[in-house]
Amino acid sequence: MRWWRVVGLLSGTSMDGIDVVAADMRLDGETIELRPLGDHTLDYPADLREDLLAALPPGTLDAETFCRLDTLVGRCFAEAALLGVDLAGGEADFVSSLGQTIYHWVEGGRAHGTLQIGQPAWIAEATGLPVISDLRTRDVAASGHGAPLAGVLDSLWLGDPGFQWKSDAGIPLKSGTPDTPVALNIGGIANIAVVGGPEPLAYDTGPGNALIDLAAQQRTGKPQDTDGALAASGTVREDLLTILLDDEYYRLPAPKSTGKEHFNSAYLARALHELGEPVSDADLLATLTELTARTIADACRAEGAGRVVVAGGGVRNPVLLAALRRQLDVPLLVSDDLGMPSDSKEALLTALLGFLTWNGLPGNTPGTTGAAGPRVLGSITPGATGLRLPEPATTQPRRLIMRSAATN
């Protein structure tokens, strides 16, 4: 079976830039093999990031501003795609883009719509390659949440009974794990995927870095609490934490999804107003870090997690990881130690979703999003030449094997 060279692109809810990855992938019966070739992050220009953040609720977005943002983000994604082609050695077969989520419409526990910007035509024009994009909307149209889609990768990667587990210290753990593995991604929003069972389950647990980054920006003028330094100097305010935890979202049944439409500046202002007394910068960051750890741990316990594998930007916050380890009573493993680079995992997910669509295969499962059934996701924008897709695959993949770049 031939290898396909794929460029994967996305920008997460933190809106700090575009994650780029290049990878070789092939499908051999029930097995997908994935060979990362390189990754990079292209930062948004500061003024564009400010405009994107200002467009989020409770901000407003008129048609002119929307058009400008969609175009500017599309051009940035085109630049990122060219970097991805360079990572691929100058040649790639297609690009897969999750774009930049600007709004996720959820009411009454159901997703009614989702909007990602960054027109794929700019990518196709810059690279000459076909582009697979708009990967969430079909799932939403099928009564799903369109998120989190990470459960697709995690169920193939970690759900294999023959997966080779290692402990925090790199010591091999027994295969055919009787306990339940949970994959955790901590971006702006945190999500988990429960894998290894007959049907994977995935959902957003609540805020990941979103409120931490917001408070850091408001209180210090910096976009994040680097290394959790400010949180480490503070004390968790249990009175504020109680108010924050008393949110209906945490009590909703899975599958469910959320975003900065809910966990935003207005949300934080309401909680502080209800508290009715000042909170120091350090105590606020300590409390928000504890909120993220507590809500993730509660979700993992509710799903009977036997071990948790974490990836995403939150991995770089040692204070958050320490809080998670205190809250969890099971091993917390970083995905890098198991062969999956944590910084580029979501970009690799994007490449995988595009690869599945390219081969005519569903990119969702009902348990991960709540959709009515499996669906082939996305739309395809042709490149510089006629669009030639491979014959649709007839076997649904059941496992994903990570290969090193040196593997032939």
Commentary on this structure:
- By secondary structure, the protein is of the alpha/beta class.
- The chain has 2 domains: 189 residues, Nucleotidyltransferase, domain 5 (2-Layer Sandwich), CATH 3.30.420.40; 187 residues, 2-Layer Sandwich (Nucleotidyltransferase, domain 5).
- 35% of the residues lie in helices and 23% in strands.
- The protein contains 13 helices and 13 strands.
- The strands form 2 sheets. Strands 1, 2, 3, 4, 5, 6, 12 and 13 form an 8-stranded mixed β-sheet that branches. Strands 9-8-7-10-11 form a 5-stranded mixed β-sheet.
- Helix 2 runs parallel beside helix 3, helix 8 crosses helix 9 and helix 10 packs across helix 11.
- The radius of gyration is 20 Å and the shape is globular.
- The protein starts with a strand and ends in a 6-residue tail after the last strand.
